[in-house]
Amino acid sequence: MTNDTGTSIALECRQVTMKVRKKEILNEVTFSLEKGRIAGLLGPNGAGKSTLLSICSGLMEPTSGSVRIFGQPAGIETLRSIAVLPDRGKLPEWLTAGEWLAFAGQLYPDWDFEREEQLVQSLRINLGTRISAQSRGEEARLQLISCLARTSPLVLLDEPFTGVDMISREQIASSVVADLADGERTFLIATHDIREMEQLFDRIILIGNGRVVADNEVDSLREQGTSVESRYREVFS
Ligand SMILES: Nc1ncnc2c1ncn2[C@@H]1O[C@H](COP(=O)(O)OP(=O)(O)OP(=O)(O)O)[C@@H](O)[C@H]1O
């Protein structure tokens, strides 16, 4: 896979600290994610999840600390290895969904057209609808396709289900993302939709006030009779 230098670590954050105008948003965040993992990045509003994902994507530089993607420092060079679904991203409203996907297919060298077609079917995208006329949930699904139709080895999703109805969330979580998790691709997903995503995660990283407050293997939690939701409540209540 692209940029795969043979390391088994897809993403490594070492003592990542972010300060904006003296306000500390992230404080020495350290964790690493092995290849093939599907990790949930969970935490209350304002905990620092989106900021951390922006730094991991290489689009934002931390005040201190470092991020490595498959062993390389995060930045322009590593962008091709990462598919990012940003928080509050916007698609060009004047295009139809089909026009946007055709454009995205030309834009990304790792675009999988067959996969795009499957995703359009399973997420029920009407290709003729102009993006400006799509509902919030429809646009969120189109954004998700823009990310998942790529074959990038690392996928960073920030709130992929904003505006998506409950049944569709469950369907996307159980079929689409699980289907893509072939043990090769690595996912880090920031979400508040813990119940729908719980079955998918094999690891959870809990962020509170800009710090990693818990980092658990989901299998270990299950062995202890604890669910992801209970663990979240235990840490943040
Ligand atoms: N550019 C900025 N300038 C000042 N403060 C910022 C900036 N970006 C983020 N923050 C602050 O940093 C904190 C973390 O924000 P962030 O969006 O990363 O949190 P989050 O965990 O993604 O929240 P949510 O779950 O609500 O999406 C918040 O208090 C936010 O107000």
Automatic annotation (TrEMBL):
Residues 11-234 form the ABC transporter domain. Keywords: ATP-binding, Nucleotide-binding, Transport. GO terms for molecular function: ATP binding. Pfam families: ABC_tran. It comes from the Bacteria. The keyword Signal does not apply. This is ABC transporter ATP-binding protein.
